[in-house]
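Summary of Year 1 activities. Much of the first year was spent building the evaluation harness for sequence design. The harness presents a backbone, in tokenized form, and records the residue chosen at every position. We chose the following record to illustrate the format because it has been used consistently in internal testing since the harness was completed.
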């Protein structure tokens, strides 16, 4: 039995097929298949049921794969402990965030990279659902999303861990030439007179659907994952948008007064929590934990009110 064989069976379980596992590990399908067959012969049990649809762990295989994951996690801990003794961090960190907090993430990455130049970091901007799917498929280490009850119900059983990072609220983004521009807040009745442009995110869609159910239907001009398109529609006073207050904090168009935000005059509006999400099934590396600690420290310095 070799560590490589344990890595392969864990990857097969994650990917759901030998072909995908081979692609993820950058080896040939033949190498993966031979490694699996050799390990099954050595153990005397079948670890996977293979078909045209993929590879599914057998009941005996699930037990072995779980133990293989535990062994690999312990090896990662040993490697990290050795790095800690040398006061270094290395490796790859894959991050994604919903639009808005990207500036917060980039600033933390910049300072973290200065302290640990050996690390490699990838950052993507995606919707909440895509972030959850990528974490489940081990394409991401950590995501920043909005945590709400509907999402928790939808993700039940996916072995995900959530940790609140920052508390905020939903606000309305408007053009400086909007008739609303001289107000500090806007009522639901006033807001419904304007067309909406929305970011294509689960929470935003849920919030607007809940708003419409309580106060009446709204006119949605378009929904997109292109933040420039949303910003341009608002600046041209074609529509208003709804988003998190910290999504607007570093918007250059707000700083030049092209846009501004208004509070939503909604009784008992619930706070919104920006949260880390990661897989509870895979090892939370020292690198990932170090970065999350750095972001929390940055938020405290900037007085954004991170949660403890």
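For this record, the design step produced the sequence shown next.
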């Amino acid at each position: 039995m070799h560590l490589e064989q344990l890595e392969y069976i864990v990857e097969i379980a994650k990917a759901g097929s030998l072909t995908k596992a081979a692609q993820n590990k950058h080896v040939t399908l033949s190498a993966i298949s031979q490694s699996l067959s050799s390990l099954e012969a050595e153990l005397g049990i079948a670890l996977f049921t293979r078909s045209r649809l993929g590879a599914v762990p057998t009941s005996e295989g699930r037990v072995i794969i779980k133990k293989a994951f535990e062994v690999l996690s312990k090896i990662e801990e040993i490697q990290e402990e050795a790095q800690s003794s040398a006061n270094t961090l290395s490796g790859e960190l894959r991050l994604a965030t919903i639009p808005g907090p990207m500036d917060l993430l980039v600033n933390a990455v910049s300072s973290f990279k200065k302290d640990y130049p050996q690390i490699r970091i990838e950052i993507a901007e995606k919707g909440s659902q895509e972030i959850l799917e990528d974490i489940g498929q081990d394409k991401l280490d950590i995501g920043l999303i909005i945590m709400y009850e509907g999402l928790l119900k939808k993700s039940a059983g996916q072995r995900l861990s959530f940790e609140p990072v920052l508390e905020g609220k939903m606000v309305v983004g408007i053009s400086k030439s909007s008739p609303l521009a001289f107000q500090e807040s806007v009522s639901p009745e006033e807001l419904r007179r304007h067309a909406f442009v929305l970011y294509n995110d689960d929470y935003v869609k849920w919030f607007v659907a809940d708003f419409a159910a309580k106060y009446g239907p709204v006119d949605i001009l378009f929904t997109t994952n292109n933040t420039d398109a949303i910003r341009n529609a608002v600046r041209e006073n074609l529509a208003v948008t709804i988003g998190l207050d910290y999504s607007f904090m570093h918007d250059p168009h707000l700083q030049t007064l092209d846009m501004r935000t208004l509070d939503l005059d909604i009784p008992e509006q619930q706070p919104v929590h920006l949260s880390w999400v990661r897989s509870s099934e895979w090892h939370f590396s020292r690198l990932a934990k170090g970065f999350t600690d750095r972001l929390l420290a940055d938020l405290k310095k900037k007085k954004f009110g991170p949660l403890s």
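The two ends are 44 Å apart (CA to CA). Quantitative recovery figures across the full test set are reported in Table 2.
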